[in-house]
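Methods — Computational structure assignment.
A single polypeptide chain was analysed. Its primary sequence is given first, followed by the predicted tertiary structure written as structure tokens.
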Amino acid sequence: MKTIRPAILSDVAALLQLESQAFSCDRLNRRSFRHAISSSASELIIAESHNTDNADDIPVLLGYALMHLRHGTSLTRLYSIAVANEARNLGVGQALIHAAENLAISRGRRILRLEVSDANHKAIGLYKKLGYHVFGQYNDYYEDHTNAVRMQKRLHSATPAHTSRLVPWVAQGTPFTCGPASLQMALRALQPDYPVTPEDELDIWREATTIFMTSGHGGCHPMGLALAAKRRGLMAQVCVSDRKPLFVDGVRDGLKKEVITRVHESFTRQCTEQAIPVTYSTLSLKELTTAFDDGALPLILISTFRMDQSKSPHWVVMSGYDAHCIFVHDPYFIQENSSDSPMDCQYLPIANDEFEKMSRFGRARLQATVLLRC
């Protein structure tokens, strides 16, 4: 009899043995398995066999599936799946995938993504049979230099296909340049010949920064980003929910407040001089998706508190949407362990209700969006 259950720490030795049998490279180690079992951001399930005719029968590990879940999003990543040699062609892999999908749905996830070697034709065929489709590729991804095919499945069959746009992903080079990196993504998407360089990332920050924030370096003002975008050949429109100087809430130092206010007033004046439209109102999800359909690429200010407990403002790029989610490219990436990948920052699905909360920053519930067009 075959059963599927959550892994526990006493399974680690058997998991390591299976890992060594199933993979010649890119193997998970003891620490990775132990972390996956204990972490709230991971789900590790195993399939095992039982002999019901023998009370002393020791279960045999047939396979496992490991998923990673990103907090605050609707995304699950099937990071690894393995089936023992003696269990191949018995439906173990398919059963693990179905169990992983059901588990992801129970955790409120709507999309399951995975990577598989482009040389593993049998696995690709199984994934396609189960409803997964290819949406990208990463070259030289594995230790043996094979390429990774990116596949995904929408876990609710009634969910319509999503609308998305090809947006090259750019990582922010410093802890404070999410705005410039987001603008660079938009520039590269709308102007394919635009050269993404660290120098221009810092130039954009100097042009758009508020100079001060609550602490540390200043972030980027939406009007500052709009002005920087226009200097680089794009048309820009700013939608902001408050006419008052932005980002002064929580700033206690009088000089900092004065500087932030003066920068805000300067950006406001420059937008008027440059004929950049500034709309002082909130932007509904319907208005946001309509602008996206009309060709705009939105830069959106969010609070990442629901993702990483940070209360800092953060800029992302809208890269798509469906009936349930807004998809974004997040420029912030830090590899804390071997399972973290820049792919987790691309077309990141955020459920509409979560997005509504994330896109309101601070006590003033500030909403800011910069709509960019060619």
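Note: DSSP finds eleven helices and 15 strands in the chain.
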